[in-house]
Write a structure and sequence with these properties.
Blueprint lengths: L2 E4 L13 E4 L4 H11 L3 H5 L10 E5 L2 E2 L15 E6 L5
Parallel strand pairs: 1-5
Antiparallel strand pairs: 1-2, 3-4, 3-5
Length: 91
């Protein structure tokens, strides 16, 4: 069973409306590359020009923010759940 990825509403137009997709990968970085291969344009929404996760995008592996793990080098395995969450700004 590959990694399950929850897609936020603003990115679902890239996944044909799917709110959850799956992909095989061993790190979050490789997962982003695989998602880009399957759904062209998604990487630009997730990563900046340097290839780092955009400031207003949060990625969680099994509920843990990758910024407090190993960022794009965070390991993932079959059955893990990855959530992409756009940061909400407000005041």
């Amino acid at each position: 069973m590959p990694v399950q990825v929850r897609i936020p509403t603003p990115l679902r137009k890239l996944t044909g409306g799917s709110e959850e997709v799956s992909a095989a990968a061993d790190t979050v970085g490789n997962l982003v590359e695989e998602l880009e291969r399957q759904y062209a344009g998604i990487k630009d929404r997730l990563c900046d020009e340097e290839g780092q996760v955009r400031r207003f995008v949060n990625i969680y592996v099994n509920g843990d923010d990758i910024r407090f793990l190993s960022n794009l080098d965070t390991s993932v395995k079959d059955g893990d759940e990855v959530s992409i969450v756009p940061a909400i700004a407000g005041g």
